[in-house]
Amino acid sequence: MAWKEFYSYETTFTNLPAGTGVTYTDNEVRIDTDADFEFIKTMFFPITTRVRIKYRDDTNGRFLMKGSQDLRTIGGHAVYSMAPGGPTPPGFVPYIWPRPYIIPAATTFAVSVADFSSLITSPRIAFHGSKLRQGESPWEKKFRAVVPYVYPITSAIAGTIAVAANGSTPSAIPTDNDAHFLVLKLVGARTGSCELTIKDGGRDRQWMNQAVHFDNLIGNGHYPNILTSPRFIPRGSTIQVVVNDLSGLANTVELNFVGVKLYE
């Protein structure tokens, strides 16, 4: 028996050489040793990315496509469906594969890209899916009550945190002692470009392999990031978030963990 826990792998092509779509650069996404990874959604940033892309499963040399594809045809990106002003809320609109694909633990997944914009860019590509855990999920038991609930990134009235230009701001989000919390969606807003990491404080489990760009992870009220599988937060523990500014300006960030309280 196995259960699924949301996880995201992201790979960044820093200063990808300008080209015409024929010269490829390879990145290896290293799958953690603790669990197989099943991915089903892809996102990319920035939305101006113009690259051709190929995926290869290094466990068997299998390519997941015939030839290369324009990333815009098999990758999703943030959209802005709400009026600007204040923190800007990006919509999470991923590309969803026809069915999940499992990559074994402790192996690599090769991502090859070739720019065709004739500009130097740094595309970031995120794979959303689930770690496959052995045993029974922590939320399988029958609970006395299941109630919708939202935990914000801060308990302040404004519900936002300030991040200095090129700075880093940590935030520990304590969960109440009265119930466990099951995270089902991520929504938020930001005034400038940024990246973040999320970790379960109680179990010391990361949600991603590296800092993921905000727009590759967080949605808005119109298009939330509906997680591929839940994340279980034991009651009384914390969700730890670190936000790194990438804009070079003072940044205001809002982040909400949307889910249900599980009362025993």
Provide structural commentary:
This protein has 264 residues and is mainly beta. The chain folds into two domains: 133 residues, Jelly Rolls (Sandwich); 119 residues, Jelly Rolls (Sandwich), CATH 2.60.120. The longest helix has 4 residues. The protein is globular, with a radius of gyration of 19 Å.
Our measurement of the CA-to-CA distance between the termini, rounded to an integer number of angstroms, reads 23 Å
Largest sheet: 5 strands, antiparallel
Q: What series of H and E elements makes up the topology?
A: EEEEEEHEEEEEEEEEEEEE
**Strand composition percent:** over 45%
Structural class: mainly beta
Low-confidence stretches: none
Q: Whole-number radius of gyration?
A: 19 Å
The number of helical elements comes to 1
Beta-strand segment tally: 19
**CATH third-level topology of the largest domain:** Jelly Rolls
Name of the top-level CATH class of the largest domain: Mainly Beta
Globally, the shape reads globular
Label the CATH architecture of the largest domain. Answer: Sandwich
Helix content: under 10%
Number of domains: 2
Mean pLDDT: 95
Structural descriptors:
single chain; mainly beta; 2 domains; five-stranded antiparallel β-sheet; 1 helix; 19 strands; globular
Describe the protein's topology:
Elements: E1 2-12, E2 25-30, E3 36-45, E4 51-57, E5 62-63, E6 69-70, H1 71-74, E7 95-103, E8 108-115, E9 124-134, E10 145-152, E11 160-163, E12 168-174, E13 180-190, E14 194-200, E15 205-206, E16 212-213, E17 225-233, E18 238-245, E19 251-263
Antiparallel strand pairs: 1-9, 2-8, 3-7, 3-9, 4-5, 4-6, 4-8, 10-19, 11-19, 12-18, 13-17, 13-19, 14-15, 14-16, 14-18
